[in-house]
Structures are given as structure tokens and as C-alpha cells.
Amino acid sequence: MTIKQQASIKRDCFDKVMLPVYAPAQFIPVKGLGSRVWDQNGEEYIDFAGGIAVNALGHCHPKLVKALQEQSEKLWHVSNVFTNEPALQLAQRLVDHTFADRIFFANSGAEANEAALKLARHYAIKKFNPYKTKIISFTHSFHGRTLFTVSVGGQAKYSDGFGPKPADIVHVPFNNLDAVKAVIDDHTCAVILEPVQGEGGLTCATPEFLAGVRQLCDEFNALLIFDEVQCGMGRTGTLFTYQQYGIIPDILTSAKALGGGFPISAMLTTDTIASVMYPGVHGTTYGGNPLACAVGCAAFDVINSDAVLSTITAKRKLFIEQLEKINQQFSVFSQYRGKGLLLGAQLSEPYHDRARDFLNTATEFKVMILNAGTSVLRFTPSLVISDEEIIQGMARFAKAVEKLVNSK
């Protein structure tokens, strides 16, 4: 595509040719470097959104670019009729640094969760009985957009309107152990949860809740699935968030930051649970793609380092300090949520349900943020964003807040 042809593509083209399931910003990003993005007009933005926690190392990180370039000249795709070196290398890294013995690669968080849920039911049916199929999930959870995963997710606004839903799925309040006790039984095959709920408002699981759920799963021979699609891969300050709680899941899912921007996901589990699977029972054409796994290896090596993980807490503190400066002037936040650089700012009562207004106004001042629900602002920047960029971006955001507050 020539520069002239590229320039001819405008934002209104989206409204004409794309399925209307998104409402993207009015500008089109065309270039990114680190924590900065440029649009078609050459305007520069500071990126606090990170592709919804995907761009964990920012845009065009040199080590990821190098890995992609080198692999692109070797092997792009062979399907799972054959294996490939990058897939095995990334799988080995995940096994070496987690509880897991076995890895399954796919392309998105939804696919990883779909695989996890299918595995849990298959394991329970094979090991116990064909009626052990109940899945316990939580209100405000989010696990993907396939019919199965969106039904397991605890937000009706995403799952209603598509006809009959998969059966034997129960939703209870998050962080409520008594609610889990009330519904778990011998027919339960799995409990699935996010240690930090992402789309549901950045609510963290309490240590007591996770310990209690683990105990209940052991008691009723149910598998504990941790969805770390958003909170994993360094986002909260450890490689995976479960490592902060000392609670070991039976299955864990990862995606988003796993490829640093290249689509890839993984399901992690143990030898015992994986033993019920066999060739043909599940699969994917693109999963374990050499390009994705080569980039994944590079991203893994950078993220899983003290140079990155040891800085997350300090960066979170700086973000909150800057948000507090804004709050002291405008009183727009009531609390801060999440862990590490999965950071949420709860809007105060006068601004409830206006998160999207903050997001849209922020883009006017050249800073990219997110929302998590209607009343929580979400910040998921690069894990290697500089302090200078945090301060500069927050100065821009402060102007956006000022405009929004004064426009009431």
C-alpha cells in the first residue's frame, strides 16, 4: 500500500465496511514506538491502554521486532500435523517457570478458556462420571466471546441474545466463599475465576477467598481454573498472579501479553489432568504458530526478568500519586483498584457511569486510557513505560479531567 493509498483510508470507512460491534476512537493510529503512538495526522499520543494489557513491552520493542524478523525468514506455519522449534521453546519456558507440566497453544484468551473448560469437563467425565459437568463462575467475570466462554462469564449483557446457552453453569458473587459453598457439590467439575477481575472492574480476589475455593475444589474433586489472560505475564508484578497468593490452580490460561502484541494464547495444566487427552479430542489450526511462538519467547524472556518485574510496584505507586494530584483538585475518584499495572480508578458518585466520557475526552488531549465497566477507569500501560512518560501522560489526562468536570 502506498502512502497516498494509506492516507485515503479515513475513520468513516470503519462505519461503512466493519461489523458494528465496536465504537473505536475517531483517530486511526498508524505508528507506535514504546509508549507513544502517532495517528494519520502525525499527532502523538501517550499510551496508557497498552492494547488492553497486550502491549506489555510497548510498541515495536526491538527484541520482539528482531524475533519476528528472524522467524519470518525461516518458517511461518506448518499446522499441528507437525511441531516446530519456537512452540517447543516457549512451552518449555512456561513449564520451567510455573506449576505446569503440559501446554496447549491457541490464538486468543477465549480459545484458551474454551480449551480449559472442555478439558475440565472431559477430565471429570473420564475420571468420575458423565454427570460431573457443573461449572461455577462469578458475577462480573469475563472469560471470552465464544458461546461457551461468554456463557461462563458472569455478565448477561455479553451473553444474552444468542439463543440457548450451554447448560450446567452457575454464577455466584465474587469473593463470597459462602456462596461457593452453597452451590458446589459432587457434580461440579470446575471453578473458574480471574485472580483480578479485568472487565468486571478490577476487583482482586482476597487471599482467604482463593484459599477457601482451593480447599472446596479439593474436597469435591473439582478443578480450579485461573483465568490470567489479563492479569498474567508480569502485569501485577509477578510472572503470574497466582504466585502472589501461594494458591496453585489445576489449569491456568494466558494470552494478551504472552505475545507482546502478536496473537497467541496458552492453557497450562498438569500431567495428571492432561492424561485424559489424546490426538483429535481438541485442536486448532493456528495454535503454536512459529511466528507467534518466536515472538512469545522474546516477550517471555524480557518480561520474566528482575529488570521488569521489580519495577511494577514503583510504577503503580507513581500512577496513583499522579491520580491523587488530579483527585485533590477535582474529586473524581473514590478508590484505586487492581494490582500492579492492572490499575483501576473508581469514579466518585457524581461521575458514576461516565467512564467512557473520561476515555473519549482523554483522547482529545492525546492520552489513551480504558474503562472497566461504566464507573472504573483502567490503566494497562507498557510494563517498561518510563516515569517521565507516566508524568507527562498524567499531565495530559489532568487537562482532560478538568475539561470534563467543567463541562457539567
Automatic annotation (TrEMBL):
It comes from the Bacteria. It catalyses: N(2)-acetyl-L-ornithine + 2-oxoglutarate = N-acetyl-L-glutamate 5-semialdehyde + L-glutamate. The modification N6-(pyridoxal phosphate)lysine is found at K256. One of its GO terms (molecular function) is pyridoxal phosphate binding. Its cofactor is pyridoxal 5'-phosphate. It is an enzyme of class 2 (transferase). Binds 1 pyridoxal phosphate per subunit. May also have succinyldiaminopimelate aminotransferase activity, thus carrying out the corresponding step in lysine biosynthesis. This is Acetylornithine aminotransferase. It comes from Frischella perrara. The lineage of its organism: Bacteria, Pseudomonadati, Pseudomonadota, Gammaproteobacteria, Orbales. The gene is argD.
